[in-house]
Design a protein that fits this description.
heterodimer, A: 204 residues, alpha/beta, Rossmann fold, five-stranded parallel β-sheet, 7 helices, 48% helix, B: alpha+beta, three-stranded antiparallel β-sheet, flat
Chain lengths: 204, 61
């Protein structure tokens, strides 16, 4: 298990794209390594095996279970996030001494809404992002700072302000390779975030 | 707080490891930004540096 790896469990839908970018940014900016099911595009690896491998390698898990709306085409909600949260909690429960150290941040839009659709996790501390990117960043930054016991990590509002500038630059960075923003892969996003933070830090 | 195992003044402020992860650089506020495990899909290191510099300078011109 890698002490600095953060498993990101969230929707990958287009309406959540900026939230996903924000999670990757705040994890990198807080001095951690983001991990997610999109990090490798290996058709030879079964998806559930890949997710289990990443969970096994990650000390931390950030789970956003806020997307409960039915999909427009199927009329059904996607259950991947609750399943992956269950896998992470199961690894902590049954994975022996090492995996018992795993730490979990669970996010929803409202603090107590989850009780209506996933009551089995009642009693856990659920954080609300209220559907706002800045709030999401604040929650994750505060949690990671606390988990790492690293007072050097800046406050969530400062990181949210940085992310706003990063978000504005991102389409131009993508355009330099004739890419649309939504064509950037997870590995692109991670590399751009790390390099952009370095450039922003040098300019400060 | 985790310790950085090795420091160098060559090129970057800090290179080393924190809890087994390679450090890319340290920000002025002291956060150790970790080196991505894989390479970007669509960019080389130089292309990324150039694209980010161009995007930033265009916005701040």
């Amino acid at each position: 298990m890698n002490e600095r790896d953060v498993f990101i469990n969230c929707p990958f839908s287009s309406d959540y794209k900026e939230f996903f970018e924000a999670i990757v940014y705040v994890v990198v900016r807080s001095g951690f390594t983001p991990r997610c099911a999109r990090e490798n595009d290996d058709g030879g690896e079964v998806r559930i095996d890949k997710i289990c491998r990443i969970i096994a390698e990650s000390r931390y898990g950030v789970h956003d279970i806020s997307k409960t709306e039915p999909e427009p085409v199927s009329g059904l909600p996607r259950f991947n996030m609750p399943v992956e949260l269950g896998l992470f909690l199961g690894a902590r429960k049954f994975g022996g001494k090492k995996h018992a150290q795993k730490k979990t941040l669970i996010l929803d839009r409202e603090t107590h809404r989850y009780q209506k659709f996933i009551s089995d996790i009642a009693g856990q501390d659920i954080h609300a992002h209220e559907g706002k990117i800045a709030r999401l960043i604040e929650e994750i930054a505060s949690w990671l700072r606390d988990q790492a016991r690293d007072p050097q990590v800046p406050g969530g509002r400062a990181i949210a302000a940085e992310f706003e500038r990063f978000r504005v630059d991102l389409p131009e960075v993508a355009a330099s390779k004739r890419l649309e923003r939504d064509e950037l892969t997870f590995k692109d996003l991670y590399a751009i975030a790390a390099k952009w933070i370095a450039a922003d830090d040098r300019a400060a | 707080m985790a310790k950085v195992s090795k420091k160098t003044a060559l090129g970057r402020k800090t290179i080393g490891k924190v809890e087994g992860a390679k450090v890319l650089f340290t920000t002025k506020d002291g956060v150790r930004i970790l080196k991505p495990k894989g390479k970007a899909t669509h960019f080389t290191e130089k292309e990324l540096d150039r694209a980010i510099a161009a995007a930033r300078s265009a916005k701040r011109a």
